[in-house]
Amino acid sequence: MVRATNACLACLLLVLVGVLPARADIIQTQTWGSLIPPETVSLTFNKYDGSLGDLTGIAIELSISTVGGLAEVDNESASAVSETVSFGTSGELDYFGSTVTVPLQLALTTTQAYVSQTFTLDPDDGDGIGVQSGGGDYASLAGGTVTNSASADVNSGVWSEYVGTGTYDILLNISTFLELSASGGVSQGSTPPDASGYVTVTYKGVNAPSEGAPEPASLLLLSSSLGGLALWRYRRKRHGHRIDNQA
Fold this sequence. Notes:
By secondary structure, this protein is an alpha+beta fold. The chain has two domains: 1-21 and 212-236, no CATH class; 23-208. Helices cover 22% and strands 45% of the residues. It has helices at residues 2-19, 104-108, 216-246, and strands at 22-35, 39-46, 57-67, 70-75, 81-93, 111-121, 138-142, 145-153, 167-180, 186-191, 194-208. It has a four-stranded antiparallel β-sheet with strand order 1-11-3-8. Mean pLDDT is 84; it is low at 7-17, 208-223 and 241-247.
């Protein structure tokens, strides 16, 4: 009898856990590209149409992919230079252009996807100011195929901007990324790469009841049954203990 009661309690607990509302994330992803920087991209997202109190967080991810292009450097100084060239695509969310308040981490810090290579450039060979191809004072770096991403949480104080009916726009500024380790005396130029990527908005911890979940009254009845069974089992054990002591 005791084993049967324990099995019944275990089954009821499993049922109760299975019908309780689950918490899930709602994820929206908008892709962009392919485009040639510099460009500004506007992406439209749906607001969360539930209650603000349902949310446990809002996160935004920015991903950038860069393909091809060409970076060029030409030494204009009278001395040889060791030059590291980094080339690709960078992007950041437009804090003032977006219709919601985006995370500062993704607006003030660029997300970069690039390749790098170090060159030793000979002294200027007299080919004139600006990038002149050829000669030991010149080098070029072909862009590769690279992807990079960054994410950040939206400040809880502005979650209300993401909740309601309708949509909002997030603007993204895309640029060619060209960085030199020792830019003094070195001319630079580039043929822009091809850029693409996506922005994802995630509403975290949203209530997501499973289909056919029982009404609150049914859940109350089920939990009351569990409590009754547990109390009956406790009393039965105490009663049996008293009989053993009397014996």
